[in-house]
Amino acid sequence: MQLIIRNAKVLNENGQLENKTIYVQNGVIDKMEDGADLDVDIAAGSKVIDAAGKLVTPGFIDMHVHLREPGFEHKETIETGSRSAAKGGFTTIACMPNTRPVTDNPETVKLVQEKAREAGLVNVLPYAAITKSELGRELTDFAALKEAGAIGFTDDGVGVQNAQMMKDAMRIAASMGMPVIAHCEDNSLVEGAPVAEGEFARKHGLKGIPNESEAIHVGRDILLAEATGVHYHVCHVSTEQSIRLIRQAKEIGIHVTAEVCPHHLILSEDDIPGLDANWKMNPPLRSKRDVEACIQALEDGTIDIVVTDHAPHSAEEKAKGMQLAPFGIVGFETAFPLLYTKFVETGRWSLDLLVRRMTADPARVFGLASGKLEAGVPADLTIIDLEQERSVDPETFASKGRNTPFTDWKLKGWPTATIVGGKVVWSEA
Ligand SMILES: NC(=O)N[C@@H](CC(=O)O)C(=O)O
Ligand SMILES: [Zn+2]
Ligand SMILES: [Zn+2]
Predict the structure, then answer these.
(1) Which of 51, 72, 216, 427 could disulfide-pair with 8, CB 3.0 to 4.6 Å?
(2) In which pathway does it act (predicted)?
(3) What is the ipTM of this complex?
(4) Where does CATH 3.20.20.140 sit in the chain?
Protein backbone atom coordinates (compact mmCIF):
# COMPACT_ATOMS: atom_id res chain seq x y z
CA MET A 1 0.00 0.00 0.00
CA GLN A 2 1.34 3.36 -1.08
CA LEU A 3 0.60 6.73 0.51
CA ILE A 4 1.67 9.96 -1.13
CA ILE A 5 1.68 13.31 0.61
CA ARG A 6 2.07 16.14 -1.85
CA ASN A 7 2.43 19.88 -1.34
CA ALA A 8 4.17 19.31 1.99
CA LYS A 9 6.32 21.98 3.64
CA VAL A 10 9.20 20.19 5.29
CA LEU A 11 12.10 21.45 7.44
CA ASN A 12 15.46 20.51 5.88
CA GLU A 13 18.75 19.83 7.73
CA ASN A 14 19.40 23.56 7.87
CA GLY A 15 16.02 24.26 9.43
CA GLN A 16 14.76 25.84 6.19
CA LEU A 17 11.31 25.06 4.76
CA GLU A 18 11.19 23.20 1.44
CA ASN A 19 8.35 21.89 -0.70
CA LYS A 20 8.38 18.12 -0.88
CA THR A 21 6.35 15.14 -1.95
CA ILE A 22 6.62 12.27 0.52
CA TYR A 23 6.20 8.72 -0.75
CA VAL A 24 5.29 6.07 1.83
CA GLN A 25 5.48 2.36 1.08
CA ASN A 26 4.33 -0.34 3.54
CA GLY A 27 4.34 2.04 6.49
CA VAL A 28 7.86 3.32 5.86
CA ILE A 29 9.08 6.51 4.16
CA ASP A 30 10.20 5.39 0.72
CA LYS A 31 11.49 8.64 -0.76
CA MET A 32 11.07 12.40 -0.61
CA GLU A 33 11.09 14.41 -3.81
CA ASP A 34 11.47 18.12 -4.42
CA GLY A 35 8.43 20.13 -5.36
CA ALA A 36 4.76 19.31 -5.49
CA ASP A 37 4.64 17.38 -8.77
CA LEU A 38 3.70 13.75 -8.55
CA ASP A 39 5.97 11.04 -9.83
CA VAL A 40 4.46 9.38 -12.90
CA ASP A 41 4.18 5.88 -11.50
CA ILE A 42 1.49 6.07 -8.86
CA ALA A 43 0.65 2.51 -7.93
CA ALA A 44 -2.98 1.49 -8.24
CA GLY A 45 -4.78 1.81 -4.91
CA SER A 46 -2.45 4.56 -3.75
CA LYS A 47 -3.85 7.15 -1.40
CA VAL A 48 -2.85 10.74 -2.12
CA ILE A 49 -3.08 13.43 0.54
CA ASP A 50 -2.76 17.03 -0.55
CA ALA A 51 -1.09 18.81 2.38
CA ALA A 52 -1.91 22.10 0.60
CA GLY A 53 1.28 23.79 1.72
CA LYS A 54 0.93 22.84 5.37
CA LEU A 55 3.89 21.88 7.53
CA VAL A 56 4.69 18.16 7.67
CA THR A 57 6.97 17.07 10.51
CA PRO A 58 8.06 13.76 11.96
CA GLY A 59 5.30 12.66 14.35
CA PHE A 60 5.71 14.20 17.78
CA ILE A 61 7.18 11.96 20.48
CA ASP A 62 6.06 12.39 24.10
CA MET A 63 8.23 10.48 26.56
CA HIS A 64 6.14 11.28 29.67
CA VAL A 65 2.40 10.64 29.74
CA HIS A 66 -0.24 9.10 32.00
CA LEU A 67 -2.86 6.88 30.33
CA ARG A 68 -4.41 5.72 33.65
CA GLU A 69 -5.28 2.21 32.50
CA PRO A 70 -5.41 -0.21 34.24
CA GLY A 71 -7.23 1.01 37.33
CA PHE A 72 -8.24 4.62 36.73
CA GLU A 73 -10.37 4.29 33.60
CA HIS A 74 -12.68 7.08 34.82
CA LYS A 75 -9.77 9.50 34.24
CA GLU A 76 -8.55 8.08 30.90
CA THR A 77 -8.12 4.82 29.03
CA ILE A 78 -5.36 3.73 26.70
CA GLU A 79 -7.86 4.23 23.89
CA THR A 80 -8.97 7.76 24.84
CA GLY A 81 -5.44 8.77 25.76
CA SER A 82 -4.10 7.46 22.45
CA ARG A 83 -6.81 9.36 20.56
CA SER A 84 -5.99 12.53 22.48
CA ALA A 85 -2.31 12.06 21.66
CA ALA A 86 -3.08 11.55 17.96
CA LYS A 87 -5.20 14.70 17.96
CA GLY A 88 -2.28 16.61 19.42
CA GLY A 89 0.00 15.37 16.63
CA PHE A 90 1.81 12.74 18.73
CA THR A 91 2.67 9.41 17.12
CA THR A 92 4.72 7.84 19.91
CA ILE A 93 4.05 8.17 23.64
CA ALA A 94 5.72 6.60 26.67
CA CYS A 95 3.35 5.90 29.53
CA MET A 96 4.09 6.05 33.22
CA PRO A 97 3.57 3.05 35.52
CA ASN A 98 1.51 4.75 38.28
CA THR A 99 -1.58 2.76 37.35
CA ARG A 100 -3.55 0.32 39.56
CA PRO A 101 -2.03 -2.19 39.75
CA VAL A 102 1.23 -0.32 39.31
CA THR A 103 3.09 -1.46 36.18
CA ASP A 104 5.61 -3.33 38.33
CA ASN A 105 5.07 -6.78 36.79
CA PRO A 106 5.36 -8.28 33.28
CA GLU A 107 1.61 -9.00 33.02
CA THR A 108 0.70 -5.32 33.35
CA VAL A 109 3.38 -4.31 30.82
CA LYS A 110 1.82 -6.81 28.41
CA LEU A 111 -1.70 -5.60 29.18
CA VAL A 112 -0.73 -2.01 28.33
CA GLN A 113 0.80 -3.17 25.04
CA GLU A 114 -2.26 -5.27 24.24
CA LYS A 115 -4.70 -2.39 24.90
CA ALA A 116 -2.54 -0.05 22.83
CA ARG A 117 -2.58 -2.53 19.95
CA GLU A 118 -6.37 -2.83 20.20
CA ALA A 119 -6.70 0.96 20.10
CA GLY A 120 -4.49 0.90 16.99
CA LEU A 121 -3.74 4.62 17.04
CA VAL A 122 -0.28 5.65 18.25
CA ASN A 123 2.85 3.79 19.36
CA VAL A 124 2.65 3.28 23.13
CA LEU A 125 5.90 2.50 24.95
CA PRO A 126 5.44 1.37 28.55
CA TYR A 127 7.73 2.28 31.42
CA ALA A 128 7.87 -0.04 34.42
CA ALA A 129 8.21 0.89 38.08
CA ILE A 130 11.53 0.98 39.93
CA THR A 131 9.97 -0.27 43.17
CA LYS A 132 7.02 -2.57 43.83
CA SER A 133 3.78 -0.56 43.95
CA GLU A 134 6.03 2.54 43.76
CA LEU A 135 6.34 2.27 47.54
CA GLY A 136 10.11 2.67 47.59
CA ARG A 137 10.67 -0.50 49.63
CA GLU A 138 11.62 -3.27 47.21
CA LEU A 139 13.00 -3.23 43.66
CA THR A 140 10.95 -4.75 40.86
CA ASP A 141 12.32 -7.53 38.63
CA PHE A 142 14.08 -5.38 36.03
CA ALA A 143 15.11 -8.30 33.80
CA ALA A 144 11.56 -9.68 33.59
CA LEU A 145 10.13 -6.21 32.95
CA LYS A 146 12.63 -5.50 30.19
CA GLU A 147 11.87 -8.90 28.67
CA ALA A 148 8.14 -8.03 28.71
CA GLY A 149 8.81 -4.81 26.79
CA ALA A 150 9.36 -2.04 29.34
CA ILE A 151 11.59 0.70 27.89
CA GLY A 152 12.87 2.17 31.16
CA PHE A 153 12.33 2.31 34.90
CA THR A 154 10.63 5.08 36.88
CA ASP A 155 8.49 5.60 39.98
CA ASP A 156 6.92 8.71 38.44
CA GLY A 157 4.35 10.29 40.73
CA VAL A 158 6.72 9.96 43.66
CA GLY A 159 10.45 10.32 44.22
CA VAL A 160 12.59 7.34 45.27
CA GLN A 161 13.37 8.54 48.77
CA ASN A 162 16.15 6.12 49.66
CA ALA A 163 19.54 6.78 48.06
CA GLN A 164 20.74 3.17 48.35
CA MET A 165 17.55 1.96 46.65
CA MET A 166 18.14 4.40 43.79
CA LYS A 167 21.78 3.39 43.50
CA ASP A 168 20.88 -0.31 43.35
CA ALA A 169 18.24 0.45 40.70
CA MET A 170 20.77 2.40 38.62
CA ARG A 171 23.42 -0.29 38.91
CA ILE A 172 21.05 -2.99 37.65
CA ALA A 173 19.56 -0.77 34.93
CA ALA A 174 23.08 0.17 33.76
CA SER A 175 24.07 -3.49 33.49
CA MET A 176 21.08 -4.03 31.18
CA GLY A 177 21.57 -0.85 29.14
CA MET A 178 18.25 0.56 30.38
CA PRO A 179 17.57 4.16 31.48
CA VAL A 180 16.33 5.29 34.90
CA ILE A 181 13.78 8.10 34.66
CA ALA A 182 13.31 10.07 37.86
CA HIS A 183 10.51 12.06 39.40
CA CYS A 184 12.68 14.23 41.66
CA GLU A 185 11.04 15.13 44.92
CA ASP A 186 12.31 14.87 48.47
CA ASN A 187 9.22 14.23 50.59
CA SER A 188 10.78 15.58 53.77
CA LEU A 189 10.79 19.02 52.12
CA VAL A 190 7.24 18.85 50.81
CA GLU A 191 4.80 17.63 53.46
CA GLY A 192 1.48 18.01 51.69
CA ALA A 193 2.05 21.39 50.10
CA PRO A 194 -0.17 21.92 47.01
CA VAL A 195 1.71 24.81 45.33
CA ALA A 196 5.22 26.24 45.13
CA GLU A 197 6.76 28.18 47.96
CA GLY A 198 6.29 31.85 47.10
CA GLU A 199 3.89 34.74 46.88
CA PHE A 200 0.82 32.72 45.85
CA ALA A 201 1.24 30.25 48.75
CA ARG A 202 1.73 33.11 51.24
CA LYS A 203 -1.27 35.04 49.98
CA HIS A 204 -3.58 32.03 50.23
CA GLY A 205 -2.14 30.61 53.45
CA LEU A 206 -0.97 27.41 51.74
CA LYS A 207 2.16 25.39 52.45
CA GLY A 208 4.77 25.76 49.72
CA ILE A 209 6.92 23.21 47.86
CA PRO A 210 10.48 24.61 47.87
CA ASN A 211 12.78 24.40 44.84
CA GLU A 212 15.27 22.31 46.82
CA SER A 213 12.85 19.41 47.09
CA GLU A 214 13.40 18.82 43.37
CA ALA A 215 17.05 19.84 43.08
CA ILE A 216 18.23 17.73 46.03
CA HIS A 217 17.15 14.59 44.20
CA VAL A 218 18.66 15.81 40.93
CA GLY A 219 21.99 16.42 42.65
CA ARG A 220 21.92 13.10 44.52
CA ASP A 221 20.96 11.15 41.42
CA ILE A 222 23.63 12.79 39.25
CA LEU A 223 26.24 11.55 41.73
CA LEU A 224 24.67 8.09 41.67
CA ALA A 225 24.57 8.13 37.87
CA GLU A 226 28.25 9.03 37.83
CA ALA A 227 28.99 6.15 40.19
CA THR A 228 26.93 3.58 38.28
CA GLY A 229 27.26 4.77 34.67
CA VAL A 230 23.51 4.56 34.07
CA HIS A 231 21.59 6.73 31.60
CA TYR A 232 19.77 9.00 34.04
CA HIS A 233 16.82 11.04 32.74
CA VAL A 234 15.26 13.80 34.86
CA CYS A 235 11.47 14.18 34.68
CA HIS A 236 9.64 17.49 34.36
CA VAL A 237 12.46 19.87 35.33
CA SER A 238 11.07 23.04 36.90
CA THR A 239 13.79 24.81 38.89
CA GLU A 240 16.81 26.95 38.21
CA GLN A 241 18.80 24.89 40.74
CA SER A 242 18.11 21.54 39.01
CA ILE A 243 19.17 23.07 35.70
CA ARG A 244 22.43 24.33 37.19
CA LEU A 245 23.21 20.79 38.38
CA ILE A 246 22.26 19.15 35.06
CA ARG A 247 24.33 21.64 33.09
CA GLN A 248 27.38 20.94 35.24
CA ALA A 249 26.87 17.16 35.02
CA LYS A 250 26.66 17.29 31.23
CA GLU A 251 29.82 19.39 31.08
CA ILE A 252 31.80 16.68 32.86
CA GLY A 253 30.35 13.90 30.73
CA ILE A 254 27.86 12.22 33.06
CA HIS A 255 25.09 10.51 31.06
CA VAL A 256 22.20 12.71 32.14
CA THR A 257 19.28 13.91 30.01
CA ALA A 258 16.23 15.98 30.93
CA GLU A 259 12.73 17.01 29.91
CA VAL A 260 10.49 20.01 30.48
CA CYS A 261 6.72 20.50 30.11
CA PRO A 262 5.00 23.31 28.15
CA HIS A 263 3.36 24.66 31.33
CA HIS A 264 6.72 25.12 33.05
CA LEU A 265 7.92 27.10 30.02
CA ILE A 266 4.84 29.32 29.83
CA LEU A 267 3.29 29.76 33.29
CA SER A 268 4.64 30.98 36.63
CA GLU A 269 2.97 31.12 40.04
CA ASP A 270 2.07 34.75 39.24
CA ASP A 271 -0.38 33.48 36.62
CA ILE A 272 -2.47 31.32 38.97
CA PRO A 273 -5.81 33.13 39.05
CA GLY A 274 -7.05 31.75 42.36
CA LEU A 275 -7.78 28.50 44.15
CA ASP A 276 -8.60 26.57 40.95
CA ALA A 277 -7.06 23.09 40.92
CA ASN A 278 -6.68 23.17 37.12
CA TRP A 279 -3.53 25.10 38.03
CA LYS A 280 -2.30 22.39 40.40
CA MET A 281 0.40 20.11 39.07
CA ASN A 282 3.58 18.43 40.21
CA PRO A 283 6.09 19.98 40.03
CA PRO A 284 4.15 23.16 40.75
CA LEU A 285 4.25 26.41 38.77
CA ARG A 286 7.26 28.27 40.14
CA SER A 287 8.77 31.74 39.87
CA LYS A 288 9.34 33.74 36.68
CA ARG A 289 13.04 33.22 37.27
CA ASP A 290 12.59 29.45 37.14
CA VAL A 291 10.49 29.74 33.98
CA GLU A 292 13.22 31.77 32.26
CA ALA A 293 15.86 29.24 33.39
CA CYS A 294 13.78 26.40 31.87
CA ILE A 295 13.39 28.25 28.57
CA GLN A 296 17.12 28.97 28.32
CA ALA A 297 17.99 25.38 29.27
CA LEU A 298 15.78 24.01 26.50
CA GLU A 299 17.33 26.48 24.07
CA ASP A 300 20.94 25.56 24.90
CA GLY A 301 20.26 21.81 25.10
CA THR A 302 20.77 21.44 28.85
CA ILE A 303 17.18 20.23 28.76
CA ASP A 304 16.94 17.84 25.81
CA ILE A 305 13.26 17.41 25.13
CA VAL A 306 9.68 18.62 25.62
CA VAL A 307 7.15 16.24 27.20
CA THR A 308 3.55 16.95 28.17
CA ASP A 309 3.24 14.94 31.42
CA HIS A 310 -0.38 14.52 30.22
CA ALA A 311 -2.09 13.82 33.58
CA PRO A 312 -5.87 13.55 33.22
CA HIS A 313 -8.12 13.67 36.30
CA SER A 314 -11.93 13.78 36.53
CA ALA A 315 -13.86 17.03 37.08
CA GLU A 316 -15.05 15.68 40.45
CA GLU A 317 -11.48 15.09 41.60
CA LYS A 318 -10.35 18.52 40.44
CA ALA A 319 -13.38 20.15 42.14
CA LYS A 320 -11.97 19.22 45.55
CA GLY A 321 -9.99 22.45 45.57
CA MET A 322 -6.34 23.44 45.61
CA GLN A 323 -5.40 21.59 48.80
CA LEU A 324 -7.20 18.29 48.21
CA ALA A 325 -7.40 17.81 44.44
CA PRO A 326 -4.81 15.54 42.77
CA PHE A 327 -1.82 17.08 40.98
CA GLY A 328 -1.77 17.12 37.19
CA ILE A 329 -3.05 18.69 33.97
CA VAL A 330 -3.78 17.29 30.50
CA GLY A 331 -1.32 18.18 27.79
CA PHE A 332 -1.56 16.39 24.44
CA GLU A 333 -4.05 18.60 22.67
CA THR A 334 -2.50 21.96 23.49
CA ALA A 335 1.27 21.27 23.55
CA PHE A 336 2.31 22.23 20.03
CA PRO A 337 -0.02 25.23 19.52
CA LEU A 338 1.02 26.61 22.92
CA LEU A 339 4.74 26.41 22.20
CA TYR A 340 4.36 27.53 18.60
CA THR A 341 2.29 30.57 19.60
CA LYS A 342 4.38 31.57 22.63
CA PHE A 343 7.87 30.95 21.26
CA VAL A 344 7.90 30.65 17.46
CA GLU A 345 5.27 33.25 16.55
CA THR A 346 6.96 35.69 18.92
CA GLY A 347 10.31 35.14 17.21
CA ARG A 348 12.17 33.76 20.21
CA TRP A 349 12.62 30.25 18.75
CA SER A 350 12.99 28.93 15.24
CA LEU A 351 10.31 26.50 14.12
CA ASP A 352 13.14 24.02 13.66
CA LEU A 353 14.18 24.19 17.34
CA LEU A 354 10.65 23.52 18.55
CA VAL A 355 10.12 20.62 16.15
CA ARG A 356 13.47 19.04 16.99
CA ARG A 357 12.79 19.13 20.74
CA MET A 358 9.55 17.21 20.09
CA THR A 359 10.84 14.73 17.50
CA ALA A 360 14.52 14.08 16.69
CA ASP A 361 15.74 14.86 20.21
CA PRO A 362 13.46 12.45 22.10
CA ALA A 363 14.28 9.82 19.47
CA ARG A 364 18.00 10.39 20.05
CA VAL A 365 17.74 10.39 23.86
CA PHE A 366 15.73 7.14 23.96
CA GLY A 367 17.17 5.42 20.88
CA LEU A 368 13.98 5.34 18.79
CA ALA A 369 13.97 4.77 15.03
CA SER A 370 11.38 7.50 14.39
CA GLY A 371 11.70 11.28 14.81
CA LYS A 372 13.05 12.14 11.37
CA LEU A 373 11.93 12.40 7.77
CA GLU A 374 14.22 10.04 5.90
CA ALA A 375 13.89 7.05 3.61
CA GLY A 376 13.68 3.85 5.62
CA VAL A 377 12.19 5.45 8.74
CA PRO A 378 8.65 4.57 9.97
CA ALA A 379 6.10 6.89 8.31
CA ASP A 380 5.01 8.60 11.54
CA LEU A 381 4.04 12.09 10.39
CA THR A 382 2.16 15.13 11.61
CA ILE A 383 0.49 17.67 9.35
CA ILE A 384 0.12 21.12 10.92
CA ASP A 385 -1.71 24.25 9.86
CA LEU A 386 0.52 27.03 11.16
CA GLU A 387 -2.03 29.65 10.11
CA GLN A 388 -5.03 28.11 11.84
CA GLU A 389 -5.99 30.08 14.94
CA ARG A 390 -8.57 29.07 17.52
CA SER A 391 -9.30 29.06 21.22
CA VAL A 392 -8.69 26.12 23.54
CA ASP A 393 -12.03 24.46 24.31
CA PRO A 394 -11.67 21.53 26.76
CA GLU A 395 -15.15 20.30 25.75
CA THR A 396 -13.72 19.32 22.38
CA PHE A 397 -10.82 17.27 23.82
CA ALA A 398 -10.57 13.62 22.83
CA SER A 399 -9.11 13.02 26.29
CA LYS A 400 -11.51 12.26 29.13
CA GLY A 401 -9.59 14.89 31.09
CA ARG A 402 -10.70 18.50 30.91
CA ASN A 403 -8.18 19.69 33.51
CA THR A 404 -6.23 22.42 31.75
CA PRO A 405 -5.27 25.94 32.81
CA PHE A 406 -5.30 27.02 29.15
CA THR A 407 -9.08 27.22 28.57
CA ASP A 408 -9.96 29.99 26.09
CA TRP A 409 -6.32 30.71 25.19
CA LYS A 410 -6.22 31.77 21.56
CA LEU A 411 -3.51 29.74 19.82
CA LYS A 412 -2.07 29.18 16.37
CA GLY A 413 -0.48 26.12 14.78
CA TRP A 414 -2.98 23.28 15.14
CA PRO A 415 -2.29 19.75 13.88
CA THR A 416 -4.75 18.74 11.15
CA ALA A 417 -3.75 15.11 10.57
CA THR A 418 -1.64 12.45 12.24
CA ILE A 419 -0.16 9.46 10.44
CA VAL A 420 1.31 6.42 12.21
CA GLY A 421 3.12 3.77 10.19
CA GLY A 422 1.64 5.18 6.99
CA LYS A 423 -1.94 5.08 8.31
CA VAL A 424 -4.00 8.20 9.01
CA VAL A 425 -5.02 7.73 12.67
CA TRP A 426 -6.59 11.14 13.13
CA SER A 427 -7.61 13.99 10.89
CA GLU A 428 -9.51 17.23 11.30
CA ALA A 429 -13.21 17.07 10.36
N1 LIG B 1 2.44 15.58 37.18
C2 LIG B 1 1.39 15.51 37.95
O3 LIG B 1 0.98 16.53 38.49
N4 LIG B 1 0.74 14.36 38.20
C5 LIG B 1 1.10 13.05 37.74
C6 LIG B 1 2.24 12.46 38.49
C7 LIG B 1 3.60 12.97 38.12
O8 LIG B 1 3.90 13.20 36.95
O9 LIG B 1 4.44 13.12 39.01
C10 LIG B 1 -0.13 12.16 37.83
O11 LIG B 1 0.00 10.94 37.74
O12 LIG B 1 -1.24 12.69 37.96
ZN1 LIG C 1 6.32 13.14 38.15
ZN1 LIG D 1 4.10 12.30 35.28
Answers:
(1) 51
(2) Pyrimidine metabolism; UMP biosynthesis via de novo pathway; (S)-dihydroorotate from bicarbonate: step 3/3
(3) 0.99
(4) 59-366
Q: How many CB atoms lie within 10 A of CB 418?
A: 27
pLDDT score recorded for residue 190: 80
Catalytic residue among 309, 361, 380, 385: 309
Residue ranges matching CATH 2.30.40.10 in the chain: 2-56+377-427
Q: Buried b vs exposed e over 209-221: b needs ≥16 C-beta within 10 Å?
A: bbbebbbbbbbbb
Within 10 angstroms of residue 50's Cβ, the number of other Cβ atoms is 12
Strands 208-209 and 60-65 come out as: unpaired
Our answer to whether residue 309 is catalytic in this structure is yes
Domain 2-56+377-427 annotated CATH 2.30.40.10: yes
What is the pLDDT at residue 153?
99
Domain range 59-366, CATH class: alpha beta
Alpha carbon distance 258, 234 (integer Å)? 5
pTM of the model: 0.98
Distance in Å, CA 66 to ligand 3 centroid:
6
Name residues of the chain where pLDDT drops below 70: 39-41
Secondary structure letter of residue 394 according to DSSP: G
283 CB less than 6 Å from ligand 1?
no
In sequence order, which residues have a C-beta less than 8 Å from that of residue 22 and are 6 or more positions away? Answer: 4, 5, 8, 10, 29, 32, 56, 373, 379, 381
